[in-house]
Amino acid sequence: MTRVLISGASIAGPAVAYWLARSGFEVTVVEKAGALRGGGYPIDIRGSALEVARRMGILPRLREAHVDVRRLTFFGDDGGRIASVRPAAHGEDVEVRRGDLAESLYALVRDDVEFLFGDSIDTLGEPGDVTFRSGRQRSFDLVIGADGTHSRTREAVFGPEDRFHRYLGYCFAIFTTPNTWGLSREILMWNGPGRAAALYATRDELHAFFTFHRPQPPVEVLRDPAAQRELVAETFADAGWEIPRMVEAMRGADDMFFDTVGQIRMPGWSRGRVALVGDAAYTPSFLTGQGSSLALSGAYLLAHSLATHPDHVEAFAAYEREMRGYVAVNQALADNGAALFPVTRDALEQRNRTLRGLDAMPATAAQPAYSALVLPPEASPVR
Ligand SMILES: Cc1cc2nc3c(=O)[nH]c(=O)nc-3n(C[C@H](O)[C@H](O)[C@H](O)COP(=O)(O)OP(=O)(O)OC[C@H]3O[C@@H](n4cnc5c(N)ncnc54)[C@H](O)[C@@H]3O)c2cc1C
Fold this sequence. Notes:
single chain, 12 helices, 25% strand, binds flavin-adenine dinucleotide, FAD/NAD-bd_sf, 2-polyprenyl-6-methoxyphenol hydroxylase-like FAD-dependent oxidoreductase, FAD_aromatic-hydroxylase
């Protein structure tokens, strides 16, 4: 039996674990966090990825967890209301908290796959001897990096992140906060030139979100949470609206997540016995809203290729061939996403003029990029 080690238990990791286990691979997942992380910010599942979710049987559960945002209200620089609209409905799309998707995937595989929480790969030897941080040593035939944008697997095998990371000009901070605003299933969004702040209410949680433009990434704060809070507080120091309350809430938040907005672009996603999937290989950035969908679809294709090719070299090549076009068209959507956060006063004014007087977001056709991957039929399960 082929033994596979997967690093990362969020979306891509458990998804690829599910399909591999079903095809008779012996799968171990190592996750550095002590337990599966639930909750989290809302993510979308669309197009080709909806079909993956359907084939996994998790779509009904995801539909139950659907956030179903009912109202989107925009505020201007001076705090005045610009427009309050119904979000555009995109048919079958599902929006759930990242942790709801992770938990649905984990529930599918927990009995068939070995999970090692609170550990991570320390060294990857050849031909698959792995030493873990905890000191345990094991051998695997293949290793899959599903450990996110700042993947250590990628760094160990392909080199430093800066070779592959493409900065898109924004930073963001996100955290949960007590819902003293009393919001439910709605988004309040404030914009100034090059700055935005949002309150995003799911059914029972409130997420606060800051994003701001920076021509160069603030590398000096990336490993320093206290400096990140200071940078956000300084950037929004003169802003009105609800922002002073939000900055205050940020100071007390214990789950603040800060990062630059960027993409991972690599010429190849595998080397030797190691392959990457999800954000580790091709983060599209939240500007596209397609990260989870690429992770689910990529996991399906990678496992399918391994199950239907005689060896991993051919399988990895097939995965890359079939996945690359879909990744490229979805990463290109980041250019549209930047329209959410206009940088100049003129661009912001123009956007506000478009919004004023609207009652509902204009129904736009779903992006062809979302469904650009035609999934191969399921490989025959061995069990
Ligand atoms: C604010 C925000 C909003 C977003 N909005 C959307 C959206 O609307 N739609 C959408 O589709 N996507 C969205 N995304 C992106 C989405 O969350 C990711 O694309 C998706 O989670 C990728 O899944 P993944 O499994 O590849 O990586 P991740 O979810 O990043 O998971 C990586 C996992 O690996 C673990 N890990 C990291 N390092 C190690 C290590 N050394 N050893 C072991 N484990 C490790 C981590 O703890 C984590 O569990 C958003 C992201 C953010 C930050």
